């Protein structure tokens, strides 16, 4: 939590660096291949692959949870972003997402309408790695929620 009591959770710096480096290599290799071997269809395929890589890399690097002064939690998952007000959230808990990803544990916002919204930036593999970080994030989110 920031000194002002606001939430700011992002991917670890090392992971962001790896994703950015992979993205640079991906785009560089495709551009280089397209320039060296410029055939009609390879240019189109290269442009599509570059666009896909940039879009995916951008969404991964944008993963995060942050709160504003207005009491709204801004959640950026890979394929969707959502703003949740404090009034919509009942509590935060850890759980799995129904086995879609081999029991990968994550923090979920339990909403007052009975649904759960996954916070993809707050997740840990099923092997125990990252549990401490996830617990810290869970505590941070619940502290923010109680600070009404």
Automatic annotation (TrEMBL):
Keywords: Membrane, Transmembrane, Transmembrane helix. The chain crosses the membrane at residues 12-35, 41-61. The keyword Transmembrane applies. The keyword Membrane applies. It comes from the Bacteria. This is PH (Pleckstrin Homology) domain-containing protein.
